[in-house]
Every structure is written in C-alpha cells, then in structure tokens.
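Here is one chain, start to finish.
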Amino acid sequence: MELHARDVRRDVRELGALLGDVLEGQTSAEAFDVVESVRTEAIDYRRGETESRDDLRANLADLPPERAGVVARAFATYFELINLAEERERVRAVREGSQEGTLSDSVAEAAERLAEADADAEEVQGVLDDVLVEPTFTAHPTEARRKTVKAKLRTVAEAIETLDERRLTDREEAAVERDLEAEVTSLWQTPQVRERRPEVTDEALNVQWYLENTLFDVVGEAYDELERALGEEFDGVEVPKLFEFRSWAGSDRDGNPYVTPQVTAETLERQREVVVSRYREECKRLSGVLSQDDRSVAVGDELRERLDADRERMPGVAEEARERYPDEPYRQKLRLMRERLDRVGDVRPGGYDDADELLADVDAIGESLRANSAETVAEARVDPLRRRVATFGLSLASLDLRDHQQNHTAAVGEALAREGIDYESMDEDERVETLTETILQDDPVIDLEATDDLSESAERVLTLFSRTADWQAEYGVEAIDTYCISMTEEPSHVLEVLFLADQAGIVDLPGYSGLDVVPLLETESALSGARRIMGTLFENEAYAAAVEARKGTQEIMLGYSDSNKENGFLAANWSLYRNQKHLADICDDHDVRLRLFHGRGGSISRGGGPMNDALLALPNETVTGEVKFTEQGEAIAEKYANPKIAERNLEQMLNAQIRARHEAVREPVEDVPDEWAAAMETAADAARESYRDLLETEGFVSYFEDATPIEVIEELNLGSRPASRSGERTVEDLRAIPWVFSWTQARCILPGWYSLASGLDEYLDAGGDAETLREMYAEWPFFRTMVDNAALALARTDLDIAAEYAQLAPADRREQFFPRIESEHERAVELVTTIADRDGLLTREWLEESLERRNPYVDPLNLLQTKLLSQSHLTPEEERTLRLTVKGIAAGMKNTG
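Its structure:
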C-alpha cells in the first residue's frame, strides 16, 4: 500500500519553484534574475564547477541595498519552506516505518527488548512504576521566527500534508495548490523580522500553544502504542502515568526583570483556563458517544454514588440534566462534570478542587462501561481523557520558579538586618546555622509583606514567595511546586530558599514541604564541591526534614550550557558525566532518591543532540526512573509543532527511559573500566587547559567580536531576556545562547568540538592508543554519544565560510587565532573518523543529504552578512537586511543557540 504521493525532492523542487514565482510576481523579473544568478553561482562552486567564490562575492558586492534585502529575504524564506519539506519527509519515514514494523527507538522496540532480556511482567511493572519523563519548556531566546510567520508556515505544512497523504481529484488538487500559493504569497508579504522584543507573555503563550494544540492531543497516542506493545509481550502489565510537562515560561526570573509576579499569575490562570476548556470539550464529545440508557446498562454503585453526590452538590443543574437526558446516566454525569469544570476557579461552589476529583469521575465512567461489556468504548473514548487528566492535571504544565542565588542572599540579608541579625557579615557555617534555627522555630522571623524599606531586588524576592503561597492555595501545589536556584555554590544558597518558603508558609517542618528546592550546579567549582554542598544539606536537620516531606527525593539540576562555555566540549561532557555519578553516590550514601534535571540546550554545544541517545548514555547509577530535561527555542518547534513528530519524540523518550531504567535495575552500577576513565581524565584535563588558553589569550574577545555577528545578535528581538548578565563584554558574562548563536552564524561551531583533538592527542601522547578509543566508542554509550555529537558539530562547521568571517578581524588577530581554530578542527575530524572507524563524519544518509541541499543556499547569506558586517555605517534598509541574514542562516542551519 502506498502511503504517500510525494517525496522530499519533489517537495523541495516545487516549493522552490513556487517561491520563485511569488518572488518574481511580488518584486520584478530583474530581482528574480539576481536571486537566480546568486543561487546558481553558489551551487556551481559547491559542485566544483567553478574554482572560487569570486563571481558570487562580486555579485553580492554590487547589489544596491534594496536588492540585497530581496536576496536575503528570498533565501531566508526558501529555508523556511525547505524545513517544512524535510519535516514532511520525517513524517513519511515515521509512518512507513510504523506500517512496516521497522521503526527504531519505538515503544514496540522497547517492549521487544524487555522480552528478549527475559524480563517478566512483575519486573516490567516495577520499571514502569519508576519511570516519569518530564520535558520542561523554557523561554530561552533561541527562536528566531515570529509567531505570525510560524502560523503561516503551519498552514503551508498542512497543504503539503494534504497533497501527500490524501487521494485528490484534479479539481481538489488545484484548489490546494492555489491555497498553497496564496499562503506563500502572504508569507512573502509578511515582515520576517520582529520590530519589537517579545514580551514574557508572548513567550508563555508560545509554549502554551504546543501544549494545548499538539501535546494534549498526541500524548494519549504514545500511551496507547505502549499498551499495545506491552500487551503483545506480557500479561497483566498496567501502564501508569509516564509523562508530566513543566514550563519556565512566565516563571523564570534569572536575569529577566520582566518576569514579574503579575506575569506568573496570568500564566497560571491562562494555563488553567486552557486545560479546563479542553476537558470540557472532551466531556461534550464523550456525551455524544455515551448515549446508553438505564434499560441497556447497569450503571454500577460507584458511578451512581458519584452522580448522586453531584445532584446534591448542584441540584438545579442536575434537574436540567435529568430533563434533557432522561434515563441516560452517562450523559447526565458528563453534563454535571462540565458544570464542575465551568466552576473551577469560580466563586460558585461545586467546582473541582483538584485533578484527582476529575480523574475519579472519569475512572468511574470507564469502570462502568467495562462492567457493561463496553471495553472497546472505554478504551477508545474514555481512556484517552483519563490519560490527559493524569498528565496535564488542572494546570496544563507545572511552573518551575527560578532565580539567581545572589538575589536570594541579598534579600535574606536585608530582611534579617531589619530584625537585628547581621547575616551579611556571617561566614558560611554561621549562615547555615542561622537559617536552620529560623526554619525550625515555630514563629516567623520576617514579615514578607513589609517591604517598604527594602531594595527593589529584595522586595521582588520577598513578594514572589508571598505570592507563591497564594498561588498554591488558588491553583494547587502541583501547579507551581519547584524552585530552581541558578549558580548554586554553597549550602546556604539552598537553605535561603527553604527559609523564605518557610516564612511564606509554603513549608511547615517537619512533615510538610510544598516546594522542591533545586540547586542548579553549573560551574566547575559547584560540581567539584557537590559532596560538600549536598552532604551538608542532607545532614542538616531542617533540610533533611524537607527532603523527607518530598518523599525522600532530591532534584538536582545540571547546567550543560555554562559548563561547556566554561570548560569546553570534551571537559564539560566528562565533568558532567563524572559528577552525575558522584551525585548519585552522595544521594545513595544519605538514602535519598536522586532526580536529575538536565539543563540541555538545543545545540550540541549546549548539551543538545538526539534525546534518546542522551538518555541511554546516562550513568546507570543516576537512572532512578524520573528524569527532567529542558526543551527550548527552535528545538520546541522542531519536535512538537507537527503532531506525528511530537508523538514520535514522546515514544523515543519512553523507549530510552524504559530501557535505561531496566538496565539500571539489572546493573545498578555501570561497569566502566579504569583504563577508560583514566583516558578521559587525561584527555579532559588537557582539553580544558587548551580551551581556557584560547579564551584567556589576550585579544580573543576582540577576535570573537570581529569574527562573529555577536553585536547584531545582542540587538535582535529574539527573547525578553537580555543577552548578557551584566552588560559587560566578556566570555564569562555573556550568556551561553548568544555565545553559541554567534559561532553558529559564522559556520564555525567551535563550542561543539574545540579542544576535543587537543585532549585526545594528550591521551595518545601519554601512551594511550587509538584501539582503546575505538573500544570505548564501541562499548561505552557515554563516549560514543559524545563523539557522535562532536561529529555532528564538525560536519556542520564550514571553515571556508568561517574564513570569510575571520577576514573581518585585523590581520594580526586573525593570524593569531584562525589558524589555531583551523588546526584543531582538522585534527578533530581525523580523530573522530578514526575512533568511529568510518570514512565520513555522518552516519545518517538523510542528514548528509540535508547538508548538501542546504549549504549552497546558506553560503550567499553568509557572504552577504560578512559584506554588511564589514561596513562601518549601515542604512536602515541595510540594518534590516543584516538582521534578516541572521534569521535566514538560523533557518538554514536549523539551529541558533
């Protein structure tokens, strides 16, 4: 059976031709000819038909500003459309693999692997009961596209899907193609670059869109697929809740003064409204199905009792339901459930107090149907709603609060100073002792409401904790129950947050803690001092009581981005791996269950890469079953905009986490030969030294400023948060996102591989051998994943283009740094291919084809960008074109930061 009518080449060809027609129609034949000339010259060079880019460079140099803007826009729009073509190809691969039973990393494969490992039903049930996957959406500013543009692209994607999957008459096909042309025309006429910086509310709405319009609908499909797969291999296995979605959008205050308590309150309210509305729609739809009457079914005691309770709770509505649906108990119950949903957060009584109440009603209907031999109805209609309620609750996504530890320390110091306690002058031990005593005493020490004489920063912190208590009372503890502390370096940084929560009434020890206090360990000093930090906390009377109140679980977040920026790719990867094992040992020593929160970015340089590979590469000791990780920027759109791809991603996460947890149960401590660990220690130390030497060499920051578009990126309206923490221009102060974004734009993805070669060469020079590295690659998931991720970053680096950017720097600085970067890249390519024992960097044919397809079209944008960056003065038209080249390169590279 043919599932599709098209392939990626046809989509690319026809979309490119359509864009050309629109371009000519909206501009002129002359503009179209210029774009075609630039395109063919770029392709000719890539194919080896011309020896240099001189003609292309000269063509771009002669363009007047208005025509340069058209060229930039044409190539940027091309990539937006081609990305949709490749997305459609991914959907084809998923559908065809599912049909043929050849889909790797699926939940079916996970079930088969469990069976092949001779796992029995009891063991599988234990694994599933441990697993909870928590994708956490952030508002980090790496999404270069406007919301309006994304909406238009979704419409284009839907048209391509229709042409690909539906059998159409000639007239129907012509109508779809006309709509497609209309949407591409509208896309061309729509400004591509934001004129204003998005507000925090915009970012929260963006995250909410994916939760409401994609994940709410597809999460049940992932559960269904897993249930089917397990049912074929095991008897009696029940699938529990396996997903929980969380968000930082509207609640992450670290470095963002625009995330106010009002914004957080609005986010909580809006998310509840959205999810309650979706449940109401589901109940309405279910009412159209469950039309059974009392004569055909015996409702059962549980449902009858719940129906009677609702009648007593809302007699007027109950009478209306009885009149409208006489003798139809399911419909009466669903009508009353809709009313209770309408009253959530309302002044009228009777609304659901929490998701458990709604879940109990849904379960009662499902059990009643099953008792009446309507198992298929329950499975097809009721169980999906049950999964959604269990997953999304009444909050859609739980919010994590986050702020920088300095703000907490300052606020606690100011607040205690009013009470005559000189916290600021205390050393660490004294601070720990003081905080512990104040947490454990019954009466509050500070008044969170009295903020008149405090600094603005301290007032913001105290007000936040006061409001958090109100939010938990209004929306439920599960709606906002985590507080992440950026740049945690000392035990007191964690106790300060526990103290403020205690003063707000969020924590009442012993026995109750409504907050997971989560240290974010992101610097080398914090990671290396983890035993001191966490050990002190676990042995602290107050904190130990808080952990016990949170079911003995401690969540710890690891910062991949800043670790990479501080240490370089290889050293950061090893430090994170080694310290994860270290954290697991610390928690085990104190009988605490560890939940790791991986602060991963979208790019390789910031901990990105294939998620299923990353989960399978974690040390066994850390795989307790529960895992959190950030999803951010353009990675959210790439993973969750298309329902089929979103479902595929959820299944891959489940596949990896189920397999990883089963492996950890069977082998709690990963067996890593001492020789391998020693090799990584030697390589990591040398790699860190090489990387730091580059960054700390005098003139490097100036070279970075000259040879990348960092200054343009800092001015882009990508996100609500500032690009640097203090406004200073140092690598340390610069946020990881613009750091990586800048190198990606220059096609020199240095943060994803620099110092890898220096480190491995030091190991080889010290007596190591390549055969050991090949064994590590073949048998050690951590090392294999690290090398494969470096290969991706190396493959996407183009030093010919990077050399064009290097020309923007003064000759002395260029000669000081670029040959060094070039040499490291060349040696890294040689080492990676040797270790992986393959001819090229890439193993995925589709990725190689994608790069070949994209490179000739990204090149003109890079050359146009370097031309504009070289000019000392730009007109407003040229400024817009420069910003558009950034957007186009980001789309072409399918990555920003």
